[in-house]
Design a protein that fits this description.
CATH topology of the largest domain: Ribosomal Protein S5, domain 2
Oligomer: single chain
CATH architecture of the largest domain: 2-Layer Sandwich
Number of strands: 12
Helix content: 25-40%
C-alpha cells in the first residue's frame, strides 16, 4: 500500500501483560507490514448474542468473549484505507466524502461506523468466520466509530454516536456498554437498555458454538440434529443461529462440555459431513482501546 498523507503520532504500546491474547500482538504487527508504519492505537470489541426477542422488538443480549480487533492510525487526507487479516487480498481505499462505490462485505460495517470526519488506516481481525451465524458487523461498526472519535472528534470519547449509526442499535449498545456478569435488556422504544445480573461463569456455564465446515448437506436434520444432540448430551439450552451456515450455539455446564463437544461433532460426521469447528466462550467485556 502507498503511504501519502500519513500522520505520525506515537506508536501504540503493544499489550505486554502476561496472558495477553496473541492476536493483540499479531494485529499491530500486521498493520505495520500492511501500511508501512505502526498503528497509533488498537481497539477490541465483543461479538453480541441476542438471548431473546426479535430483531425489531424487545429482548435481551449479551457480549461474548469472541472479539474483533482493529489497529488504526489517522491520516490527514480524509481517505480511509481498510485491510483485513482474514481477507488479505481485499484491501479498500475510499474517500468517504464522495461516491464510495462497491466494497467487500466485510468492510461495509467499518465504513458504516464512520462519518467521514477524518482519514484513517484500519486493519481488522475477527475471531469468528463469516459463516458462524454471529455477525461481526456490530463490533466492527462500534470500533470504527470509537476510532474515528479518538483521532478526529473535537470531543473525543463520545461513544454514544456510534449507537445511532448501527442498523441494530440495541446490540450496538451492548457492545459499547456491557458489564461483566450481566446481560442487557432493551425494550422496543428508544430508552437505554438496562443491565440485569447474569453470571454464567459463576454458575460454571460456557457458550459453545459449532460452525459447520460447509453449509447444508444434512437435509432437514441440519438444524434439528445438532440442537437435539447437544441437549441430550447435557446442554441446558441450544438453538440454531440465523443464516445459511447452519451453526448451533448452546449453553453448557462445565461438567458436560466434553460430552456436548463430542455430540456436536458426531452429529455432522455421522451424516458424512466434515467435523465442525467447536468453539467456547464466556461473557465478554465492552468495546475498549487496548493499546
Amino acid at each position: 500500500m502507498t503511504r501519502p498523507h500519513d500522520v505520525s503520532p506515537p506508536a501504540a504500546a503493544l499489550p505486554a501483560a502476561r496472558g495477553a491474547a496473541p492476536v493483540l500482538r499479531l494485529v499491530p504487527f500486521a498493520f505495520t507490514r500492511a501500511f508501512g508504519r505502526p498503528p497509533a492505537g488498537v481497539w477490541s470489541a465483543p461479538y453480541v448474542l441476542r438471548r431473546s426477542g426479535s430483531r425489531a422488538g424487545p429482548g435481551a443480549a449479551a457480549a461474548l468473549s469472541w472479539r474483533v480487533v482493529v489497529a488504526a492510525a489517522p491520516r490527514t487526507d480524509g481517505r480511509l484505507r481498510l485491510g483485513s487479516i482474514d481477507r488479505p487480498d481485499e484491501g479498500v481505499e475510499v474517500d468517504p466524502r464522495g461516491d464510495v462505490g462497491p466494497v467487500p462485505e466485510w468492510a461495509r460495517p467499518v465504513l458504516a461506523g464512520t462519518t467521514g470526519a477524518g482519514g484513517l488506516d484500519l486493519l481488522v481481525h475477527t475471531d469468528l468466520p463469516e459463516c458462524a451465524g454471529l455477525s461481526a458487523a456490530v463490533p466492527l461498526a462500534c470500533t470504527a466509530a470509537l476510532i474515528e472519535a479518538a483521532f478526529h472528534d473535537p470531543e473525543p470519547g463520545d461513544a454514544h454516536r456510534s449507537r445511532i449509526r448501527l442498523t441494530d442499535s440495541p446490540l450496538g449498545a451492548v457492545a459499547l456498554f456491557a458489564r461483566p456478569g450481566h446481560v442487557m435488556v432493551f425494550g422496543s422504544d428508544t430508552g437505554a437498555p438496562s443491565h440485569v445480573p447474569f453470571d454464567p461463569d459463576g454458575l460454571g456455564l460456557r457458550f459453545v458454538l459449532a460452525v459447520p465446515r460447509r453449509a447444508g448437506g444434512m437435509g432437514d436434520g441440519s438444524i434439528a440434529g445438532p440442537v437435539r444432540d447437544a441437549l441430550a448430551a447435557g446442554a441446558i439450552e441450544a438453538r440454531p443461529l440465523p443464516g445459511a451456515g447452519g451453526s448451533t450455539i448452546a449453553v453448557v455446564p462445565g461438567a458436560a462440555l466434553a460430552a456436548v463437544r463430542r455430540a456436536l461433532v458426531h452429529t455432522r460426521t455421522r451424516a458424512g459431513e466434515p467435523a465442525p469447528r467447536v468453539l467456547s466462550a464466556a461473557l465478554g467485556s465492552p468495546c475498549t482501546r487496548v493499546a
